[in-house]
Design a protein that fits this description.
By secondary structure, the protein is α+β, with helices and mostly antiparallel strands. Helix content is 22%, strand content 35%. It has 6 helices and 12 strands. It has helices at 12-22, 34-43, 93-108, 122-130, 233-244, 264-272, and strands at residues 3-6, 52-56, 59-71, 74-84, 112-118, 134-144, 157-162, 189-194, 200-210, 216-226, 253-260, 276-287. It has a 12-stranded mixed sheet with strand order 1-2-3-4-5-12-6-11-10-9-8-7. The longest helix has 16 residues, at 93-108. The relative contact order is 0.16.
Length: 298
């Protein structure tokens, strides 16, 4: 018999144990220490009241982390990771966790639940689909390992603000994967590219990562959208990435994270520039409230 407890009822060490056991043998090493795990809870706006842990006796054997946010007029929840200990897999714990999470979402007044799953993780995708989730898009993580030059036409003016300010842009996309959103971009920046008439031609949110000695190690972009009314999109994108990835003496890694392949114009531009896919995920949604439209598969 398994007992489900909210994260708020458990110790941090119990949650960490559930996480590390639950993601043992995963597609990549997801192991964390207590400091990194605690930081992740804050970074990704995980809710202690919506996240749950499964116990067998006093031993944590699975968990499902959740966050929620008001987007427009609707509350949106995000499954930030579902894991079950290797010794307890295929015993229905995953289904139990997803069912309980959806019950909590409904009690909270959540309209839509979202999640990402590794595209190759057929078992997890099948589990979510059996519980009413549908694939609505594909999400990729792209990286450019070698230096690439971008050409600025000098027709556009860059404006830098905080990532928090991105949400107020007229062309900001609110319906994107959770970790790409402004609230997960703490200490991040927004690059707004202005056209000749003062219009927003394109925008991106990004973070700069530095080595301990202070040298630039990587630039990670999470949002990257172009105003679809622009007549010469390639010129706009060249200018945008010229300012996003400036020429420096020391090389750094260029990364595009949580990128939706349905953003075809930008996606095609990036792949033509030599960006390579490192990880592919499916983006899934489930309507929790009656009458909510989660969109169509892409």
């Amino acid at each position: 018999m398994y007992q489900i407890k909210c994260l708020s009822e458990c110790t941090l060490n119990q949650a960490l144990e559930a996480w590390n056991k639950g993601f043992e043998g995963y597609f990549f090493d997801a192991t964390m220490d207590v400091d990194r795990f605690a930081a992740r809870l804050g970074q990704e706006n995980i809710s202690a009241s919506l996240s749950i842990i499964a116990f067998e006796g006093e031993v944590p054997v699975g968990l499902l982390l959740s966050g929620y946010k008001k987007v427009g007029e609707e509350l949106v929840a995000w499954n930030g990771g579902t894991g079950v200990s290797a010794s307890h897999r295929r015993k229905g714990i995953g289904k139990l966790l997803v069912e309980k999470a959806c019950e909590l979402y409904k009690e909270k007044g959540i309209h839509t639940s979202t999640l990402e799953a590794i595209s190759k993780n057929d078992q997890a995708i099948a589990l979510y689909e059996s519980k009413g989730y549908k694939v609505v898009d594909h999400v990729v993580h792209l990286s450019l390992e070698t230096s690439q030059e971008f050409n600025d036409s000098l027709e556009f003016y860059p404006v830098y603000t905080s990532a928090h300010d991105a949400q107020f842009l007229s062309i900001y996309r609110h319906d994107t994967p959770w970790q790409s959103q402004w609230w997960c971009m703490k200490d991040g920046l927004t690059l707004q590219l202005l056209g000749a008439e003062g219009e927003t031609a394109a925008y991106a949110m990004f973070k700069r990562q530095y080595s301990p000695d202070g040298t630039l190690k990587a630039i990670v972009v999470t949002h990257c959208f172009i105003n679809e009314e622009q007549k010469d999109p390639e010129k706009v994108l060249e200018a945008l990435f010229f300012h996003l990835f400036p020429t420096t003496v020391a090389p750094f890694q260029c990364t595009i994270a949580f990128f939706q392949t349905s953003n075809k114009l930008v996606y095609n531009y990036l792949t033509n520039k030599g960006f390579l896919m490192k990880v592919e995920q499916v983006w899934m949604k489930k309507a929790i409230a009656t009458g909510v439209d989660i969109g169509h598969s892409r």
